[in-house]
TrEMBL record:
The chain crosses the membrane at residues 31-51, 105-123, 130-150, 182-203, 229-249, 269-287, 299-319, 325-345. It comes from the Eukaryota. InterPro entries: UPF0658_Golgi. This is TRP C-terminal domain-containing protein. Residues 381-404 are annotated as: Disordered. Keywords: Membrane, Transmembrane, Transmembrane helix. GO terms for cellular component: Golgi apparatus. The lineage of its organism: Eukaryota, Fungi, Fungi incertae sedis, Mucoromycota, Mucoromycotina. The gene is PARPA_05937.1 scaffold 20170.
Length: 404
């Protein structure tokens, strides 16, 4: 146990050392890191203010008895909408305000995910991950631009469907949230332009670094790029799929699915399966990563079966979500990546935060010790051990081209 503690401490030190080195490597990496921190901080602060305004509006309308707090998470628990009752519009207002709050919370979580994804792209010098971060940043701007229009419609619903006089506290909080949302859109749009410029500069820097590692073999570059995409989808899956799974686990718990005890009850069985899959999701993704690094096809088959079960789980609970596309893509990439096993890519799997003193030892040894631990990564170190004859790419591979 003491040895493991010391080893973990040394790994943490190496991790911090290399992270600092990669972030301070050029002026563009420094600017990118500063921009990520600034963007995340501003988004969290402004979205926190907006969420607080929405909560105040919701609570004020409840205190005024203009709407009722819906205890259940069902869309229409009292069947008022189905029966077209007069006060059904109040339910729609309550649901709309609740969804506004949930959307703002998701925006905050997505901003935190962007922070991790962007910093990780710099440390790993991943071109694919850098491009994904830039695209996500543009999507955040689009999402932020949609929010003010939704806010206006929600305010109009309150004015039209809630009997006068209008509560000045409600009107003030709506207007205050709207001003902050407009400010957020403006800032996010400016930052997205800066992110695009910096990403282009880092694209050339990281692309050259990868070219020096992989070489000019086009077929090997293609395999390497596919593996990077697979790792990226794993990270996207860890966010979108996990957040969605946790959300629906909470929903089903609030609906008291656990009280529907019985092995023939479809809702109870679906609830149990969903909870188990949610718990196993993150370990399963780490297991898939390990399978790619070690080129273990049995592990990849097991992960593919898990993804198919996840798909059935979403079908059972009738999920229609923007996050569900991630695990379908992951299942397809699982098959494509497994097809590249044994084609010479394995020697390029390198431990991320390797100690400088260990490089000569690793290079002098054989490749069997290259992947002894789960931390061995692709695309991480500039020094590589010599390839064995059976790991070298075939002579039929072409030797021209660039890495993107």
């Amino acid at each position: 146990m003491p040895n493991k503690t010391i080893e973990s401490r040394h790994f943490l030190i190496r991790m911090m050392s290399l992270s600092k080195k990669r972030i301070q490597e050029t002026k563009y990496t420094k600017l990118f890191a500063v921009l990520i921190v600034t963007t995340t901080f501003i988004c969290i602060v402004l979205e926190g203010v907006i969420v607080n305004s929405h909560v105040r509006v919701y609570q004020e309308l409840i205190d005024n008895e203009s709407i009722e707090d819906i205890a259940s998470t069902s869309v229409d628990p009292s069947k008022k909408l189905a029966e077209n009752e007069a006060d059904a519009k109040e339910i729609l207002i309550a649901l709309g305000l609740r969804r506004l709050k949930n959307e703002n919370i998701f925006f905050i979580l997505f901003s935190l995910f962007q922070f991790v994804l962007g910093m990780d792209a710099i440390v790993r010098q991943s071109v694919i991950q850098l491009a994904a971060h830039t695209v996500n940043q543009v999507l955040l701007v689009v999402f932020a631009a949609i929010q003010p229009s939704i806010k206006v419609f929600r305010h109009l619903d309150v004015k039209q469907d809630i009997p006068p006089p209008e509560d000045p506290e409600v009107s003030w909080n709506f207007d205050f949230a709207l001003r902050n949302e407009i400010g957020l859109v403006s800032i996010m749009f400016l930052f997205s332009i800066l992110f695009t410029f910096l990403s282009y500069k880092l694209y050339k820097q990281f692309g050259w670094s990868i070219y020096k590692r992989i070489g000019a073999d086009i077929e090997q570059q293609s395999r390497f790029r596919l593996t990077q995409i697979f790792f990226l989808i794993l990270k996207l899956d860890a966010f979108f799929h996990f957040v969605l799974c946790v959300f629906y686990a909470v929903v089903m718990s609030q609906e008291k699915y656990y009280s529907l005890w019985g092995i023939i009850n479809r809702k109870f069985i679906g609830y149990v399966i969903h909870i188990v899959l949610t718990v196993l999701l993150i370990p399963g993704l780490l297991f898939a990563r390990h399978g790619v690094i070690t080129e273990n096809k049995k592990v990849m088959v097991a992960c593919l079966v898990t993804q198919l079960i996840m798909g059935l789980d979403f079908i059972l609970i009738l999920v229609d979500s923007a996050g569900s596309w991630v695990f379908w893509i992951l299942a397809v990439l699982n098959i494509l990546v497994s097809h590249n096993f044994g084609m010479g890519l394995k020697p390029y799997m390198q431990r991320l935060f390797i100690d400088e003193n260990d490089k000569s030892h690793n290079q002098s040894g054989n490749d069997a010790g290259l992947l002894e631990k789960n931390e061995w990564m692709i695309d991480e170190e500039e020094d590589y051990p010599p390839m064995k004859d059976d790991d070298k790419p075939s002579s039929s591979s072409k030797n021209t081209g660039n890495v993107s």
